[in-house]
């Protein structure tokens, strides 16, 4: 089977497969064709792919492959009927495109739909691998914008107090942000809607911000649940009060398939000190800060710097591509036999855990979104928005 690696659209520097993954794919029976220049932005030359056993071709050459791999969801117009695609499709936000894929009988594997609680899925979990890097880079962006040093420094001219950093949310991205800020020498406070997160926060050097009435607001898939307006207000009030004298605030709250919740209202920004930096990790899906401008960095009238940089993993494209490529290669080789993709209804990575599993989530399937002109029968939540 021929596997095609295509160049990502403008603004996306990552590449789906790096040269180090070519050998593993070839061993599994695949021939690989890479669009010319696909890996350049991630610091992988065409010659490296050729040396690893891949073939370099034009975009049209790569699109002749049986399965196309990418990061972004390719436009359906460049694909042929009954082709296979593996990417991050963000299906709930791209429902119209998914419908077009179904009409064209394309088999779509959406890597962001990995049933992440399955132990076998962890080596394929692109959400976790990319969120890790995003959390790390968010803190570095904050540190580069804040007009003061991060660690405590004692000099003959006086002592610089360590920066205060507040991380809102402690999922994969949040925990990495906490750890990174701590390594830089900051005093770190962190919040989460899951009371059980306190131990994790403390294990990486953070101080847990507890909110009265807190419970484990987490769904069966391991994602944060939508919160009631009343509790959102309580969280906002408590955490924003702690953040009022912070130097860097990083917001990480993301609800799968939904707009990002507002955790920093405009009224709170007015109370933040001049020179404080808010890094909104979810600028691309509405933003956690009410004032965020996607793709922009700007300063408010009261001197607060708001960073709305989108696609944080793409700003560390080399590392992000390596992790994504490892995730994707592990997935593809796990569903292949003798160089052919095998769609098995018994594979819980593909179709989601069975109903008798502790990890079963009603209405949520696995990576397989659609094939043979139909949405997969387990994807009823997605089917409801198509």
What would you say about this model in short?
The chain has 386 residues and is α/β, with parallel strands linked by helices.
Give your account of this protein's structure.
- By secondary structure, this protein is α/β, with parallel strands linked by helices.
- It folds into 2 domains: 187 residues, Rossmann fold (3-Layer(aba) Sandwich); 180 residues, NAD(P)-binding Rossmann-like Domain (Rossmann fold, 3-Layer(aba) Sandwich).
- The chain contains 12 helices and 19 strands.
- It is globular, with a radius of gyration of 22 Å.
- The chain starts with a strand and ends with a helix.
Question: Any key phrases for this structure?
Answer:
single chain; 386 residues; alpha/beta; Rossmann fold; 2 domains; eight-stranded mixed β-sheet; seven-stranded mixed β-sheet; 12 helices; globular
Topology, element by element:
Blueprint lengths: L1 E4 L13 H9 L3 E5 L10 H7 L2 E3 L1 H4 L4 E3 L14 E4 L7 H9 L3 E4 L15 H20 L7 E3 L2 E3 L3 E5 L3 H12 L3 E5 L5 H7 L3 E2 L20 H15 L4 E4 L14 H4 L7 E4 L16 E3 L5 E3 L9 H18 L1 E2 L2 E2 L6 H4 L16 E4 L2 E2 L4 H4 L3
Parallel strand pairs: 1-2, 1-4, 2-3, 4-5, 5-6, 9-10, 9-12, 10-11, 12-13, 13-15
Antiparallel strand pairs: 6-18, 7-8, 14-15, 16-17, 18-19
Helix pairs in contact: 1-2, 1-10, 5-6, 5-10
Backbone shape: globular
From the 3D coordinates, which CATH architecture of the largest domain would you assign? 3-Layer(aba) Sandwich
Describe the biggest sheet? 8 strands, mixed
Looking at CATH, the homologous superfamily of the largest domain is NAD(P)-binding Rossmann-like Domain
Approximately how much helix is present in the residues? Answer: 25-40%
Mean pLDDT: 94
């Amino acid at each position: 089977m021929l596997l095609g690696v295509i160049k990502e659209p403008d603004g996306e520097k990552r590449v789906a497969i790096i040269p180090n993954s070519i050998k593993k794919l070839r061993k599994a029976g695949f021939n690989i064709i890479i669009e010319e220049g696909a890996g350049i932005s991630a610091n992988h030359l065409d010659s490296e792919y050729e040396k690893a056993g891949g073939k370099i071709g034009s975009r049209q050459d790569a699109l002749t492959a049986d399965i196309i791999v990418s990061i972004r969801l390719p436009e359906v117009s460049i694909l042929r009927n009954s082709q296979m695609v593996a990417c991050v499709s963000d299906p709930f936000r791209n429902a119209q495109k998914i419908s077009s894929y179904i009409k064209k009988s394309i088999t779509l594997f959406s890597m962001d739909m990995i049933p992440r609680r399955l132990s076998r899925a962890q080596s394929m979990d692109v959400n976790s691998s990319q969120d890790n890097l995003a959390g790390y880079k968010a803190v570095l962006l904050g540190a580069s914008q804040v007009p003061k040093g991060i660690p405590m420094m004692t000099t003959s001219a006086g002592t610089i107090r360590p920066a205060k950093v507040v991380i809102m949310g402690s999922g994969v991205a949040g925990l990495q942000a906490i750890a990174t800020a701590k390594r830089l020498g900051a005093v770190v406070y962190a919040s989460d809607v899951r009371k059980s997160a306190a131990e994790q926060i403390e294990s990486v050097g953070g101080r847990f911000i507890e909110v009265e009435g807190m419970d484990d607001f987490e769904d069966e898939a391991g994602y944060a649940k939508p919160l009631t307006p009343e509790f959102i207000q309580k969280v906002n009030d408590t955490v924003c009060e702690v953040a009022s004298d912070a130097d860097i605030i990083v917001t990480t709250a993301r609800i799968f398939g939904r707009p990002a919740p507002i955790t920093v209202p405009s009224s709170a920004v007015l109370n933040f000190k001049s020179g404080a930096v808010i890094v909104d990790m979810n600028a691309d899906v509405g933003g956690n800060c009410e004032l965020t401008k996607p793709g922009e960095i700007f300063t408010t009238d009261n001197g607060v710097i708001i960073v709305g940089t989108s696609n944080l993993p793409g700003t560390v494209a080399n590392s992000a591509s390596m992790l994504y490529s490892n995730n994707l290669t592990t997935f593809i080789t796990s569903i292949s036999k003798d160089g052919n993709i095998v769609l098995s209804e018994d594979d819980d990575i593909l179709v989601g855990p069975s109903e008798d599993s502790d990890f079963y989530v009603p209405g949520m399937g696995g990576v397989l979104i659609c094939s043979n002109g139909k949405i997969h029968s387990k994807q009823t939540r997605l089917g409801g928005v198509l």
